[in-house]
Please model this.
Amino acid sequence: MTSTTSTSTAIPKLDTPRKRDSGESLTKLAIRRLRRDKLTLLAMGVLILIALLCFSAPLIGGALNVSYTRTNSNNTFARPLQTLEVGLNESTSYHILGTDDLGRDHFTRLLYGGQVSLSVGFLAAILALSIGVTAGIITGYYGGWIDDFINWIISTLNSIPSLFLLLIIAAVLQPSPTTLIIVLGLLGWTGTTRLVRGETLSLREREFVVSARAIGASPLHIMFSHILPNLFSVIVITLAIDIGGLILSEAALSFLGLGIKEPFPSWGNMLSKAQEYFTRGGHLVFFPGVMIFITVLCLYVIGDGVRDAFDPTAKD
Amino acid sequence: MIKYTLRRLLQAIPTFLGITVFSYLLMTAAPGGPVGALTQAPNISPQQRQRIALQLGVNDPWIVQYLRWLAGDDWMRWDTDGDGKADQSIFIPVGFDANNDGDYDDATEGDLHFPPGDNKGILRGDFGRSFFYNRPVASLIGERVAATLELGLSSLLFGLVIGVPIGIIAAVRKGGWFDNVTRIIAVCFSAIPIFWLGLILILIFGSQLGLLPMGGRCPPTLTGGCPPIWGRLEYMILPTFVLATGAIAVYSRYMRASMLDVKSQDYMRTAQSKGLSGREVWFKHGARNALIPLATFLGPAITGLLSGAVITETIFSWPGLGRFAVGGVTSQDYPVVMAVVIIGAISTICGYVLSDILYAVIDPRIRFD
Amino acid sequence: MKNFRRLLLAASGLAIAALAVAPTLAQDDGLIIIEGNFGGDPATFNPILASDTASRRITGFLFPGFINANAETANFSEFDPPLASGGIVDSWTIDESGTVYTFTLREGLTWSDGDPIDSADVIYTWNALQAGVEGIVDTPLSFVIDPTGATGILDVTAPDASTVVVTFASPECTSLGNVGVLYPAPSHVLPEDLALLNDAEFNLAPTVSGGAFTFSALNPGEQVALLANDDYFDAATPGDVAPAGFIYRVVPDQTVLFEQFLAGETNVIDSPAVSRLAELRALAEAGEKQLFTFPGNAWDYFALNFADPTNPQNGLDADGNLIDQGAHPIFGDIAVRQAIALGTDVDAAIDAAVFGEGERMNSFIIPASWAYNQDLPLIEYNPDAAAALLDEAGWVDADGDGIREKDGVPLSFTLYTNEGNGRRTQTGTLIQDQLSQIGVQVNFSTIDFNTLLDIIDSQTFDSVILGWRNGWPDDPDATQLFTAQSDVVGSGSNFTSWSNAEFNELNTQAKTLAGCDTAERAQLYYQMAEIFQNELPYVPLFAINGAYAAGADIAGFGPYPSLLYWNVDSWSQATP
Model:
């Protein structure tokens, strides 16, 4: 099941490059490879465009003379490209993607929903990654009881099907974007930790770490100045794939009625709510679905592309 | 190996305890509470409501509730004079004293003398009673577990049968059209919200084309019988496919990566240089070794399937545990939620142990000590 | 590779085999009614224990009622087939005090196993309800018994096999509504020891029936199947219940539920989603489906808290005196309440939230009720009047932030509704937007239903959109909803803490009017509706139209409001 975090983290586990000679040169090589990877560049471009559009929603709404909250009972379920309605200030407004069941502009609503979905995905992934990387480096570097303890937490968390856990937690915390970020972040770090722990274990024995230790560098310094930079590719790959997975998780929770609640828009709740309007407003079902699909697709493609770029066994 | 398995299972005990404490704490922290869900009628009096809360024990501190669930309440409230009413107790009240006169037996005032505890607790194999159904949870679970197993196993199988060969072929022809096409399809399928995919498939194959039923596990019958699985395959196709899409994507990519890893190993080169045919090298030497890491995937696969079952079962009206769990969470039926969590946890833990054993079976180099 | 090919072949073979057997319903032995059930499994088939909708649907098919009501007039009635049938009471008399009702039971009624249905079966239920008060039987019906004996049913006795005497605490016009809980139960097969009733095998596999169907099988999470009971005593054609059986299929997703009905996988749908009613109308016009809509008995309201939400108090103290509960900082001002009512475009809400499938209300009485005052005008949407009213009352936007304030208190409040209810979410969103246009800030959020109930019961809220579903037959009595005695923190349905002496007095009069003539009672309710509209504890919203739909293959489908299956025994397969 890909709409939960459990499987998305499993993808990069094995594919992650393990035999690399020097972080520096590999990064340069990877960037060179990425520059030639048209598909990944395209995905990056599309993603940046989507993010830019979403986060300039207030400007766009102003330019089109529409509001994502203003209801209009005389103009519900307007089809896309309808432009002739009287808008906010008694002047023409442009409903590029039509209006929804309450007569609100669907396009700007989609953009605001995108803000929520993207932020939830991005911030939750960052949170998960920070916890995951920190825990991974610490367990990998120190081992011992810390390792055992964190492993126990991981196996405990992994033993409960993630959606069950999310269901229970979502029932406890009325999900606002903030709580959802925290919850998804706190549940999604285990895969990263395992990955980073493995990487750290091998990096710990490498010459540059051993020599740093020999000249008396503090463990903190070693962990963050020597080990962390070498985890760059792992971090990027995990981030891209996690964001995608989290956006899907949010949608799945919305379907079960436990995601972000109306009147906050998110792609997930717009999509699950639009279900009942299949025949009346097909566009309300189509666009949120497409936005989720394209965004997640781009993120996966980027994750893939970065992985290939950092793959030391690949030939140029 | 038996020793190893036993040790792994022993190690699972703290994990198991952690899960139950964590889940119980969370669940009881949820606002609202089960009594509200049970008493929505406007004519329920506050006394009735309080009585229900006391009977269910949901007013007790969470740790007492947890203990009761874990170890039962037959030792918390018992009867010494054999009149069927509890007269001794620790942690929990003997009855409901509506007017606080210290006497529990005046029914006209709304007092209530509870019967002795009869829950044995999960440690003695008692899942407790469902608040909503007012029946033992074990029998409710028993009625639904087969449906989930059926769907889960068929999806696992379907995912492997489709995913593994795709991964192998993609690795053999790395960079070829098959590799690229399957990769794109895999990524596309993983990027679609699963409830959305299910709904669209129902609309296409059920509503528009009329080829497949729109959900359910067995055809409707007046006798309530359900034909054997091969007699109702049409009901399995869509849910199995939807539940397996994620698995197919993951297995095929995983298998491809694993296969590429194996490809660079020495023995493959040796085999090739010995003049064995390509197909023989790939499938006899390559695939076998590439499958090894896939075995580790069984544990996560089980959690993935159970999570997926929640949504798939809802969309396809499949009478399994996933949907039961959603109902339990929304009505805050604690014993039901706990039972489902535990079953999920046990199957996952078993999945992890099983994958270790599989590992050993496939790869004779691995020995347990 | 060979193995792989074989597997692929097997897989594709399965798919092809499956495509050949597209689902069909076996229709060889008469009509099979299949209804999609959006809720969960029925919890029990015992009429004494059933509380959820799904359980009540099935027990309604398996067991007779106590008293008859006329399907057309929705009034309690003597046995008068076919419109007033299905109950075991033939007629009744009331003594002079108005508290003792003597019911004469119909002769010759039998359960499906031949055992007579008599007063013992009613007494069994009564005993179970009393045991319910003591917590021995988990029945939702014990509410008719008040442990203090102030209201409700005091006693039920059976002088002989065909007579049941019910004694009420006080003479009330709602008494007949309360005797409905005395469902006759097949006492000859139920455990004598009531302590065993909760776990009786009968509850999930009822062996005896007294309704149009008998129990066949329960597939948990999937369906309940019932078979025709040809011995049903009220069958339109004696000795023959026309449909072969009834199947209640669980379909948790609304969209799928509707599509299944469209495709004919199910042939009855109770309360189809309002968003799809237009579609059904078109299909009904084309003769492809049958549709029946009616003014509903479920209604939504926008409740405003009267009392200080920071210090919730009961309405009455132990001696029955009114308690001063303080005033809500905003809603305490009647001008604000009236402005909110004027500034809420309910028609727009009906359009958006229920696609026009609703009827506006002028008070707390549903438009379908005999007590509905047709002459009382609706509060018309008038934002300008609302703004003027607020200006006049001193609520002005002095600091120019778009929100009015008075004495430093901003005109801003929270509005809750239960999440998962699209209709109320729409209404709330609209109200939020509409009120913002008259300078009122509404912080609208949807929260979990159980949590919301907790908040409402604790009376710490500002305002809330929720709904009530009235019973059938409906009585407009307002004791539960709007009197000080029901204003109890922690429970009690008068959570807005509104109480009005005149309203109370009229309500008591209407409830205890000698003879209970509906025309006379209606006059009193007309006055109450007027007071309500002036005081506005609720901003009245709308009643949602009810709807039943059936496939064109069902002949005999002819519901009355709130009675989908009243004549189910004569439904048959339509000949095309």
User: Anything to note?
Assistant: The first strand of chain B starts at residue 77 and ends at 78. The beta strands of chain B are 77-78, 88-89, 95-96, 112-113.
